[in-house]
Amino acid sequence: MKTLSKIFMVIALLAMAGSALAGTLEKVQQNGELVLGVSEGVAGFSAPDSNGKWAGFDVDMGKAVAAAVLKNPDAIKYVPLASKQKIVAVSSGQVDLSRGTTWTMKRDCKQGVDFTVVLFYDGQGLMVKKGLGVTKATELDGASVAVVSGTTSELNVADFARANNIKLETVVFESKKEAFNAYVAGRADAFTTDVSQLASLRAGTTNPDEHIILPEVFSKEPLSPFVRHGDQQWKDLVTWVLFGLIEAEEKGITQANVLEMKAKSTDPVVQRMLGATGDVGALIDLDNDWLVRAIQAVGNYGEMYDRNFGPKSALKIPRGHNNLWTKGGLIYAMPIR
C-alpha cells in the first residue's frame, strides 16, 4: 500500500508540474508581458540598438505576437540566450517564445519544443579573411574553423569536410561571440555559421571588406520561432499571427494602410483577416483585431524583412528563398479561414 501511495504521489506531483507550465496564453495575459528569447546580439535578427533597445527580425516577430495578445508591442521582456540555452529555456518555460532556430527532426521530436512557421530560409557557409587567399571552401583543406559547440553548424561542417574529402580542424567555443572573436583574432582560419549571420557579424567588424563569405552553402537551415511542446493553444496562436504577417504582404496590407484596408477593401479574404467580417480571432482565443494590431506594430512580412535585411539595412541580404511564393520564393502562408 505504501508503494501504491508513493506512485500516486509521484503522479500527482508530475500533474502539478505540468499544470504549472500549462497555458502560456493565460500566463502571458496575467503577467502582462511576453518573455522572448533573443540572441546574444546578432544584427538583423536581435541586438540592442544605439539606444539600448532590442531591434531586429526576431524582435519584430515578438512584437507582433505581443501586439496581438497584449495590445502592446512593447510589453516584452527580452532574455538573451546562447545557442546551447535556447531549446532548454523554452522547454522549461523560462521563456514563452524563442527566436528562430533551425527546425530539425531531433529538436522537434525529442527536445520538448514545437516549431511554428519557417520565417527565414538560410544555409550554412564559411567566412575567411582576404589575406588567406582562398576563394572557395574546398581550398580550406587543413585549415582550422571556429564553430559553436552543440549546434547544427558543428555537425554540418564535419559533414561538408567528409563529403569533399578535405580535413578541417574544428576549434569549438561555447558561444557565437567567442567563436567569431577567436576567428577575428586569428585563432582560427575560418568561421562558420548561417550565411545571414556571417553577413551580420561581418558588418559589425572594424573593416568588413577584410572578410569574405565563401560561395558554398552546404546545409539547409530553415529558421522558425518555437514554443514549448504540448501547449497547442499557444502554438496555434503564434503560428497564425506569423502566417498573418505573410498573408498581409501577399494581399498588399501594410503598416501604413492596414486601417484603410479594413474599412474599404472588398476582398473577402482581407475582410476576414482584418476582422471586418467573420470571427477568425475566436479560433486562436483573441478578438478580431489581433492581426490589425500585429501589422500596425511591425508591418507585413516583407516590411519586416526589408527593415532588417533589405537594401536599407546594413546587411543588404537579397530575399532569394525568402521571397513570397508568388515571386519565386518559399514564403507561403496557410489560408486564414
UniProtKB/TrEMBL annotation:
Signal peptide: 1-22
Biological processes, Gene Ontology terms: amino acid transport
Keywords, in A-Z order: Signal, Transport
Gene3D superfamilies: Periplasmic binding protein-like II
Domain Solute-binding protein family 3/N-terminal: from-to ranges: 33-261
SMART domains recorded: PBPb
Stored CDD domains: PBP2_BztA (cd13692)
Family the entry assigns: Belongs to the bacterial solute-binding protein 3 family.
Protein name: Extracellular solute-binding protein family 3
Native species: Pseudodesulfovibrio mercurii
Lineage: Bacteria, Pseudomonadati, Thermodesulfobacteriota, Desulfovibrionia, Desulfovibrionales
